[in-house]
Amino acid sequence: FFFRPLIAVALRLRAFLWSMLQMLRCLWLMLDALWDLFCQWLTWAFVTKEVHWDRVYEQHGLFVDDDSLVVEVGANTGIFAGYVNRVARGCTMYCFEPAPRPLEQLRRQLERLNATQTGNRFVVQPVALADKPSDGLPFLSFRISGWGGLQDFYDNDLIPGTLGTWASWALGYNAPDVVSVPCDTLDSFAQAQLPDRGIDFLKIDCEGGEEAALQGAEFLLSQGAIKQVAAEVQGKDRCDRMEALLRGHGFKQVEVEQTRMLGKTEYYMLYARLHAPSVSVVIPTLDEEGSIQDTLTVAAICKPRPLEIIVADGGSTDATEQVVAETAQALAAFPDPPAIRFVRCPESGRGAQMNHGAQQAAGDYLVFLHADTRLPKDAVAIVRRVLADSAVALAGFRTIFSGQDSSYWPIAFHHRIKTHYPFMILRPYRWLFHHLRLLFGDQAMFVRRREFWRIGGYSHEPAEDISLCDRITHLGKIREVDRYVETSARRFDHYGTTRVTLIHVAMVLAYLVGQFDRMRRMYPPQSVLDRRRSRAKDI
Fold it and tell me: Start and end of every Methyltransferase FkbM domain (predicted)?
């Protein structure tokens, strides 16, 4: 009787402690999950917001293509890995990060990315890269200052006050000032792990160790095994030395941009051994002496420049060829002008001419531009940025019209909605699940050359743009870019806005229901309209 109450109390106490332990375990798991979310938010809020990956890399032609091999030295918590996973497919990426806390966050990030359906593979390398291998490289960590706040090893305040203290723990910079980490060189790593493969994109951001990491890749640089290099460098002297090293190995500077991030000055160095994907512009013409000069000039002065502009003529009887030659001669005075060629096509018709021009083109990307349409000044950068997404097979700009009338809002409104409604009504399944959209030729459509020929190019029949959109959707999405090209409204000035809009609608619907042959004579070519107009003036 004496021990029975004690045993009961002990059993109840044991049950209470066990339940409390389970509650604490659940609370710990919840706090750990919330901490992980907070770390991700803090990383994106203080880093990604100011880096602007799309602008820094894609706009200048440095981007990660499909099936690339990417190496990042100083992967931190995996921000750049997330960018690669968004823009590319089938890539292999090695992420080097020796700091303990960012390494833990990096592993979690890469586990999530490896689970996505992009075909990318991300590999963690918990070592540092420098100019020579070592068992224990002194690693200078960020630290919390005596007054509170996060400082780097140059004693620069990154995030002051209590917020910096929290940020240091979230980002993992709560280690001692100097820690010892295993170290390797990129040359020895590549020799062991990548004996038969070069590096397509090398990114370096290791807070003061960028120069040493690049020096450790001396053999790869000398063998031309690294195609593109992007580095975030602190210190102007270090930036100059790295620039001299890259130029000495045949790299071409794309851009060096000075940026202040989190209170410190960094230099974004972008270098490429190989050129970015080249862009060829194909312009079909037939008696376009009045408009081809402006179109050529605007296309030729795009920044960056297109590789070439090919004028595919269908048998002009006016001075189109002479105007093209004179314009090309005048544009030769501009720095780095594109090649401008005038080619005569064996067959007339817009589809046949654009196919013939595409056969002559050497660019990786093709832009099909009407002779009365003007591109935006950054058109080449837009084309590269959009087609860097492997999910996009075909794209085009939005259109604004200029002409005698001051208002063409009904046409502009129709161009905005016509991308969707024809296929939404008559091809609802493909519109919903295959992203089938409709682009017209005056939207300056652009496509990868290999995919253009994979579907056989343009049809030689009228409505070649509708046919192209209809056939290319099994290769990827059709996208309308949120930028504008300016197109002449001469067609609408001649026939009237309402009539031309109705004819457009009738042509699209007739094509989709298989009755286009009956519509062919309703809408003569633009050159025929010009000749009719000139004859009327002569009379």
Answer: 72-252
CATH number for the region 44-141+176-272 comes to 3.40.50.150
Can you give the three-state secondary structure of 494-507, one letter per residue?
HHCHHHHHHHHHHH
Distances (CA, A) of 303 to 299, 335, 365, 383: 9, 11, 16, 12
Residue 258 forms beta bridges with which residues? 267
pLDDT score recorded for residue 447: 95
Phi-psi region of 250 (alpha: psi -120 to 50; beta: other; left: phi over 0): left
Query: 2 or 336, which is more confident?
Result: 336
Contacts of 186 (CB under 8 A, 6+ apart): 71, 73, 129, 202, 213, 216, 217, 220
Outline where 132-256 has alpha helix (H).
161-171, 186-193, 210-215, 218-222, 236-248
pTM more than 0.70: no
| 7-11, 31-35, 179-183, 402-406: range with lowest mean pLDDT | 402-406
Structure tokens that stand for 410 in this block = 């009904």
Please report, for the chain, the start and end positions of each structural domain, with discontinuous segments joined by +: 44-141+176-272, 279-538
> What topology is assigned to 279-538 in CATH?
Spore Coat Polysaccharide Biosynthesis Protein SpsA; Chain A (3.90.550)
State the Cα–Cα distance between residues 489 and 497, nearest whole angstrom.
9
